Amino acid sequence: MSRLVVVSNRVGPVKDAARAGGLAVALVEALKSRGGLWYGWSGKVDEHVQDQAKIENVGSLSLATVDLSAEEHEEYYNGFANRCLWPLFHYRIDLTAFDRRYYEGYRRVNAKFARVLHPLLKPDDTIWVHDYHFLAFGNELRHMGAEQSIGFFLHIPFPAREVLAALPHHDAMVRGLFAYDVLGFQTEQDCERFRDYVVREAHGRAEGDRLHCFGRTVTVRAFPIGIDAEGFARMAETDKDARKQYEKATKSLNGRTQIVGVDRLDYTKGIAERFHAYERLLQDYPETRREVSYLQIAATSRGDVQEYREMREELDGLSGHINGAYGEFDWTPLRYLNRPMARRSLSGLYRASKIGFVTPLRDGMNLVAKEYVAAQDPEDPGVLVLSRFAGASYQMPEAIIVNPYDIKGVADALQIARYMSLQERRERFEALMAGLRREDVANWRDEFLSALAAVARPGNPVEG
Questions:
Q1: Kind of pairing, strands 210-213 and 216-222?
Q2: Choice among 67, 363, 412, 440 that is catalytic
Q3: Backbone phi, psi, residue 128, to 5°
Q4: One of 118, 131, 143, 155 is an active-site residue; which one?
Q5: Separation CA 301–CA 316 (nearest Å)
Q6: What's the CATH number of domain 4-226+442-454, 3.40.50.2300, 3.40.1500.10, 3.90.78.10, 3.40.50.2000?
Q7: Second label for 149, Cα 20 to 30 Å away, from 345, 407, 434, 441?
Q8: If residue 410 lies in a helix (H) or strand (E), which one and from where to where?
Q9: Per-residue pLDDT tens digits for 103-122
Q10: Would residue 363 show up in a list of annotated catalytic residues for this protein?
Q11: What is the model's pLDDT at position 18?
Q12: Are 456 and 416 in contact, with CB atoms under 8 Å apart?
């Protein structure tokens, strides 16, 4: 079996992978079983940076990291990755920074990552590249003579052709993706959008799951990412920290129905729309007052970016307005926290919450939806209210699927969830859990690597 080389923006953790989540566990298990190498950015910004990898051996696998200069970090990471690709791929053209300097920096850093990795590669390695930070990475490796099998998985949505075309150099971005042998997306809809671009914009040709363009052929398939459903369910039920959080939450609720939302603080998550929907619930259904409590955890991210500072100010204002208008001395309608919570504690919190509120405006998959379901008590499960624009909605039709822009419709869905019968809740939960077990994170990993092995062949750079 060939050695596996995983490339991602950040590396690890390895020793505490279980605490970090199912994705880290799946990758670490694959790396250990094949004697692998995990490569990416060290997380350090250093003005005296050298284009050389720092290597750490952890058992049967190795970690290789490279530092970035302040200019590289600003242009590649803050600039093109997070101020251009992130908003554009989530359909926020209005927030996209079309700065040529960012694009050139992104290309330089992708070339740097490839240049540092190339001498560490073995001829029969299998290379698995992750996410939007490395769209150009595979082609840079090919230009250096790499002939190994290289697969790429996009964790975020792929945009519609008309949206992608707003990006200067969009053709070069897609052209570079054809240096990979397998392109993996979260959903069939993402695959369709990519095919549509290749066929109608780049004048390529589609044959089943294979696309021919730019003198290359790639396999394009959906590999919806999952979670360790059994492990998360076990943690929610038996872990000491999870039980402690469950008991603490249950006691504080005093019989009230808890609605829970857990997100990274980001404009793609639809948290403001969620707050408006909750306020509409209190307006339209006065009997919910004092009977419902909404807890929103939104850990701050990218706090130095203006759009994120403005969003936090908006949410602070909305939460204050709702609590001021509806709260009473012994009932706070909305509790809004900006700090992260450990996964073990979150599992207990999910279990104590009768409604899971997951309504992003656009999301590649959304694993919170899956973790919420896995954490439920099978005898008395809660109800998931899920956005139709989350990739998870295609795998989880037994949730209450909503349009997050329809404030009234979401409020009504919350009310339906409150009064759903035990029998219906159990039926929905059993169907959802069956899907989570069938398409778990190990299945995602194995399916992708099997597809990559099936098309293994020498690769050439994409010219032009």
A1: antiparallel
A2: 363
A3: -120, 110
A4: 155
A5: 15
A6: 3.40.50.2000
A7: 441
A8: helix 407-419
A9: 999 999 999 999 999 999 99
A10: yes
A11: 55
A12: no
